[in-house]
Amino acid sequence: MSVPRRIKVLIVDDSALVRQVLAQLLDGFSDIEVMATAPDPIFAMAKMNKEWPDVITLDVEMPRMDGITFLKQIMSTRPTPVLICSSLTEKGAATTMQAMQAGAAGIFTKPQLGVKEFLTSNKQQFADAIREAAKTNTKNLIPRALLPPAPVMIPQEAEPAAMAKTTERVIAIGTSTGGTIALEYLLSQLTTVCEGIVIVQHMPEKFTAAFAARLNSICSIEVREARHGDRVRPGLALIAPGGQHLSIGRNGAYYQALVKPGPAVNRHCPSVDVLFRSVAKVAGVNAIGIIMTGMGDDGARGLLEMREAGARTFAQDEDSCVVFGMPKEAIKRNAVDYIVGLDRIPGIMMKYSQ
């Protein structure tokens, strides 16, 4: 029997302590091999000229060349999964959003103090992040050109009388790995007549505010981090804050965002399942659910509940995903009405809004 190939990892960080600790921790996993470490991108490129890694872990602020410049070089020459190791600060969040826009596959946060203890206690999560990055479809990590959305016809169906109490409608979206690039493409295609949108993007605390601010600066619709009690309204996309669950409730004839802390669901907080289940319960046929690129199965069960409640449900297709895990699990559970490419989703949302 052949031995499974190990994931070759290159660690690039200007901290000797971080390099040493990460290398020791990752060497403890049988499916991961630390092929080299480097204190900055210049040294890293010298090592990569001899052997190319499967995954690169990359600090952002380094001497001689910053991480974002290095990342852009990699993605323009030989796209490779890059996991950003960033400090959990406001400045670090904003910089990391630039890295995600440049094609980073994911984020792993680290504190400014107590780094060794933090990495040691979170070694399993870091290894899982590397495994997740290794499975990404690198061609879809590169930001898409803003192509016009493909026209989509959504069948018209009679709505049960039970949901005739409100004409308000809502679009619920769940995504993870690769979602920052996909959401930027998707939301930038929409106009202000689009129905209200609620989104869970798996992302650490502090990072969602920076992500929402970036999207808001380039989109016609308003995009911001959700606040408890926000009305879900046309022309507004609300993104779940990192570290808190987002769901929706009814306030008279309107839907409103409910933002609350809570335990992780499917290893995530915010969780797509939490959002989708609330939409199934509160909105029913007055909603559509869209599950997009991401690792794992968060959202699959909730999307099934949405479909059973009468909502139309969509999954991003494998060819346009960075990671097909979440859509694939939803499809396996018979939770999906339509499987569509990313370029078709804006048209679906606008047609639904009309």
UniProtKB/TrEMBL annotation:
Residues 8-125 form the Response regulatory domain. CDD domains: CheB_Rec, REC_CheB-like. It comes from Rheinheimera riviphila. Involved in chemotaxis. Part of a chemotaxis signal transduction system that modulates chemotaxis in response to various stimuli. Catalyzes the demethylation of specific methylglutamate residues introduced into the chemoreceptors (methyl-accepting chemotaxis proteins or MCP) by CheR. Also mediates the irreversible deamidation of specific glutamine residues to glutamic acid. The active site is at S176, H202, D298. Contains a C-terminal catalytic domain, and an N-terminal region which modulates catalytic activity. The modification 4-aspartylphosphate is found at D59. Keywords: Chemotaxis, Cytoplasm, Hydrolase, Phosphoprotein. InterPro entries: CheB-like (IPR008248), CheB_C (IPR035909), CheY-like_superfamily (IPR011006), Sig_transdc_resp-reg_Me-estase (IPR000673), Sig_transdc_resp-reg_receiver (IPR001789). This is Protein-glutamate methylesterase/protein-glutamine glutaminase.
